[in-house]
UniProtKB/TrEMBL annotation, chains A, B:
InterPro entries in the cross-refs: AB_hydrolase_fold, FrsA_esterase
Keywords linked to the UniProt accession: Hydrolase
Gene Ontology molecular function terms on file: carboxylic ester hydrolase activity
Name of protein: Dienelactone hydrolase
Protein family (similarity comment): Belongs to the AB hydrolase superfamily.
Organism from which the protein derives: Virgisporangium aurantiacum
Record bears the keyword Hydrolase: yes
Length: 239, 239
């Protein structure tokens, strides 16, 4: 079942199993740059998690994305990202600083949304919460997971440490929950060394980096299976 | 069921499901330095693969290991390895050259054993073959998988490119089957950069490196689960 919601003006969507009653583990999913809360991969993954595990899954439109911008603005963002990928331009300091600013804005939005969601009987506050977000979803998720004790496990990746972004390293150091981090050897916008440097900064005792060949948009499908098992290990056992 | 065998003087062991008849996928497992064909982790993994998937699993004593040396010689090897780990001495050129020599000796032994095993009705030659071996098992496995077209998928890791070993890079380049490669960030004897350099050399289109914190002997247990799924993906589908 799919339910739209809005918290403090931020639009979100919640997926739950048909006919579900009572609390359950929740997975927060943050889309990537130029995407929105109902991007295809999120919808597919939400359906899978809901049907197979009975979890709830929630997504928000990030600042400057989805229903928070006009179609023309969203298209411009997508065009710019495609151009950056095609030209293999790594993140420059101005872009990295803007991403940090966007994350600072998004973190309280996610925390408010989590308050709201845990107030719903179909989610509740007695079960573990996971976070999934790669690329921009990692830039937003790292400070969120660092600050939010309700999140017990996170999937990150396709992101790294870049000049211009002053706050990501310290946020990563404050993340102590288990993480799985995906990285692409031939990422057009994230140098492998920058990704490894971010991975090294995480304070988590359990942290596992999965490195595959290919570009930013070519994460192999078996990684999605691995994310699923990662969440099953950390959400279902405790749930 | 467990069956000891010897091919050209090399002792091996074959695990198969109780009462099994007819051919099945086969996983070859090569133990690490100072271990032997019935080292605890191999026995546990073999039992799991046999019971859960119905595969056959085979292990050999590597040159200079197991029943091919005296107890005193085996103890000396184990003491030397423990000392190297405790002193965090990376592989020196002489040790790397000796490992290359050992691998050159082991490859034809494995190929002869595979001929023998595929001649048994309970294995046969109509099903895919996988290879598992980390550390010394990778040094032996890389040239084996490079030369042996019957092996369709391999788990490697805890190994890297080192001065003194002239043949490993080109062997890795000739490996084209899917691989999963495990690496430890704090490995006492393999620098992370050496491991990444080896990973980069593999010719495989599907290759996935899993990097975790901890030392040479501290690979997390969830990696064993991942190996299992990797083999299930590549052996059972085709089998």
């Amino acid at each position: 079942m799919l339910m739209d919601f809005t918290v403090d003006g931020v639009p979100g969507v919640l997926w739950t199993p048909a006919g579900a009653t009572g609390g359950r583990p929740l997975v927060l999913m943050c889309h990537g740059r130029s995407q929105h809360k109902r991007a295809d991969p999120l919808v597919r993954r939400a359906a899978r998690y809901v049907e197979r595990y009975g979890w709830a899954v929630a997504a928000l439109d990030a600042p400057g994305h989805g229903d928070r911008v006009t179609t023309a603005e969203a298209t411009l963002t997508a065009v710019k990202l495609r151009r950056r990928l095609a030209e293999k331009r790594k993140l420059d300091p101005a872009t990295a600083a803007a991403a940090a600013q966007r994350a600072a804005e998004a973190v309280p939005e996610w925390r408010a949304a989590l308050d709201h969601l845990q107030g719903l009987p179909v989610v509740g506050d007695a079960h573990p919460v996971g976070y999934w977000g790669v690329s921009m979803g990692t830039r937003i998720g790292v400070p969120l997971v660092a600050e939010e004790p309700r999140i017990v496990a996170a999937v990150f990746g396709l992101a790294g440490l870049h000049p211009g972004d002053e706050t990501l390293p310290s946020a990563a150091a404050r993340v102590t929950v288990p993480i799985e981090f995906v990285l692409q050897s031939d990422d057009e916008i994230v140098e492998r060394e920058a990704g490894l440097a971010l991975f090294d900064r995480f304070g988590s005792r359990e942290k596992s980096l999965h490195l595959n060949p290919g570009g930013h948009l070519a994460t192999p499908s078996f990684e999605a299976e691995s994310w699923e098992r990662f969440f099953a290990r950390h959400l279902s056992a405790a749930g």
